[in-house]
Each structure stands twice: as structure tokens, then as C-alpha cells.
Design goal:
- Strands 3, 4, 5, 6, 7, 14 and 15 form a 7-stranded mixed β-sheet that branches. The chain has a 6-stranded parallel β-sheet with strand order 10-9-8-11-12-13, sandwiched between helices.
- Helix 6 links the parallel strand 9 and strand 10.
- By secondary structure, it is an alpha/beta fold.
């Protein structure tokens, strides 16, 4: 089968190549999928460097989310049949290939009428934001949600889910074009972090009270600014470090303001509490199927252009998700 292969650990633009591999074996609880599309995530840039919490030994295939059709099921994967249209997540990678094998508990039926391209863009972004905002932060109607990286793959879903939960959403992003994307997803207030002071802007928007929930896939200085503009009892969600800088969290400020800092590694959470994660994603997908959430069309690249797609992702110039068509 054709696949994007990481032959050795290192920078993604040096170690990834298009090659041929044997299809992976099918365990009893597995579902073999003919991959039609596979999502691109920031974690893909880390796993090829050996900097992700899952560290496969080269050669291996990156890719944590896919959509396609079921080819074969293991003896214990009784909920699926060959021919079913599905989307799935892969905790250890393997999605950037013509075939992959996913645990049955991480497979969902693709909503009727949804393309595989769009389906591959949903699991991690919507799964992360739903679990973070609903399960962990327990975002309530009329609370204020501050979303950083609000035009990115996960940030945009946080804006959309926040509005669906009837929160007041403040979106932070770089430049008018990205802020326009966040506004189209439901953000009521916009902050251009390139020209505005995040702390001062949030204080102004909230009449000095601050944000109740912060959703931060950016990290670094962005997190530090957020910590100084949250309301008492706020919940701050650590989603990632797209800025490339891992912040230090001053415990004294958490204590004084009764603030909770909550980390979420969504793919890792699937291994810790798979049932809860499966139910969370199922609810998010049901909101999409019912038209309550309207995912934007992702940017699409061919399989052989995976390096170019990763470069766009890392540049933070993309709006929304990036997907490989296979």
C-alpha cells in the first residue's frame, strides 16, 4: 500500500517520504479501513521528531485521524461491517496510508451525506473541543469563553461549540482575515493579538471581570497574558503549544484567584477513559449531523504533498483543518 513513511526521527521536511508498506495486521478488536482522507495535526510534527508521548520506532506512518470505508473487521469488532462509511482515530498514528487499522472503540459511523474529506477533519478537533469544554471545563450558558488560535483547526471548533453552549465567545487570532473566520463561527468579540494587548482587551470586553474559561492551543506568552485576565474560579485549558514555547504556570496566581489549570491530551485520554471519550465525540458528531455545528471545508492536499501540508500547518497561516486526500 502507498503510505507516507517516517524512516528516521528528525524534522518532518527531512524524514518523511512516500513509500510502499505491507498493510498492518488486523487484531481481533480492530477495524481495517480503506482510507479516503486523513487529518493533519500539530502532533504529527512532533511524533516524527520523537517528541510526542507516543514514540513509535521507525519506519512508521504518521496520522491520527481518518475517514473511509470498512474493508474487514476482527472477530470482536461486531458493531461494524465491510462497506460501512466510518471515521476513526488512531492513538499511535498510521493514518497517512491507503489502509489503516483502528480499534473498534475509536471508530464512528460517518454522518449521512458527509464526505470523507470533511469526516477526516472532525474527530480530533471536535473531539478535543467537546471534551475540553463540556467534560472538563463544564462551560455554562452566559459564561465568557476566551479562545486562542481561534481560526486554527481546534480553535475554530472551540468557538463553534462555545456558541452552541450559549457562552459569550472572545476569539484571539492573528490578523483581520483570521478574525473574520472566527467571527463566522460565532465569536462575538475579536482580539488581534498582533496589534492588541490580550489582557487589556479581555478586561475591557468583560467590564473588568475576566474570562471564565480559557481555551489555549497556543501556549507561551499567550497563556501568561490569559492568566492575568481571568475571572475568579476560572478554568484554563492547556490544549497545546503551537507557539513553540511551553509556559511555566505560577501556582501562586492559581491559588490567589482560585483558578484551575487543566491539561488535555485528547488522543491519550482515549487510552485512559475510552468510553467517556467515545461518548463525547459521538455527541459532537450528532450535533454536526443535526446541523447545530457547521464545520468549514478543510484545506486539502494529496498524499504525496504531506510535507507541504505540515509546513502550512506549522506556519500558522492556515484557517481551519488541513486534510490529505488518499
Amino acid at each position: 500500500m502507498r503510505a507516507v513513511v517516517c524512516r528516521e526521527l528528525g524534522p518532518f521536511d527531512q524524514v518523511l517520504e512516500l513509500g510502499d508498506l505491507d498493510p498492518p495486521p488486523l487484531p481481533p478488536s480492530g477495524v481495517r479501513i480503506a482510507v479516503g482522507a486523513a487529518g493533519i495535526n500539530f502532533a504529527d510534527t512532533l511524533i516524527v521528531q520523537g517528541r510526542y508521548q507516543v514514540r513509535p520506532t521507525p519506519p512508521f506512518v504518521p496520522g491520527f485521524e481518518v475517514a473511509g470505508r470498512v474493508l474487514e473487521v476482527g472477530a470482536e469488532a461486531t458493531d461494524f461491517r465491510p462497506g460501512d462509511r466510518v471515521l476513526a482515530t488512531l492513538s499511535g498514528g498510521g493514518g497517512w496510508a491507503e489502509q489503516c487499522v483502528a480499534p473498534a472503540g475509536q471508530v464512528h459511523r460517518l454522518p449521512d451525506g458527509m464526505s470523507e474529506i470533511l469526516g477526516a477533519a472532525l474527530p480530533i478537533a471536535y473531539g478535543t473541543s467537546h471534551f475540553a469544554l463540556v467534560e472538563l471545563a463544564r462551560l455554562k450558558p452566559a459564561e465568557t469563553l476566551l479562545v486562542h488560535g481561534a481560526a486554527g483547526g481546534v480553535g475554530l471548533t472551540a468557538v463553534e461549540i462555545g456558541r452552541h453552549l450559549e457562552a459569550t465567545v472572545i476569539a484571539s487570532a492573528g490578523g483581520p482575515d483570521k478574525l473574520a473566520v472566527a467571527a463566522s463561527a460565532g465569536a462575538e468579540h475579536l482580539i488581534d493579538y498582533r496589534t492588541e494587548d490580550i489582557r487589556e482587551a479581555v478586561k475591557r470586553i468583560t467590564d473588568g471581570r475576566g474570562a471564565d474559561v480559557v481555551y489555549d492551543p497556543v501556549g507561551g506568552a499567550t497563556w501568561e497574558a490569559s492568566l492575568r485576565c481571568v475571572a475568579p474560579g476560572a478554568r484554563m485549558l492547556v490544549i497545546g503549544f503551537a507557539a513553540g514555547e511551553i509556559q511555566s504556570i505560577p501556582a501562586n496566581i492559581l491559588l490567589v484567584k482560585n483558578v484551575a489549570a487543566i491539561g488535555l491530551n485528547w488522543t491519550g485520554m482515549q487510552l485512559v477513559d475510552p468510553t467517556r471519550v467515545h461518548q463525547s465525540l459521538a455527541e459532537a458528531l450528532s450535533w454536526v449531523a443535526a446541523g447545530r455545528l457547521t464545520p468549514p471545508a478543510p484545506s486539502t492536499f494529496e498524499l504525496e504533498s504531506a510535507v507541504e501540508a505540515l509546513a502550512l500547518l506549522k506556519s500558522r497561516k492556515a484557517s481551519g483543518k488541513i486534510v490529505l486526500g488518499i
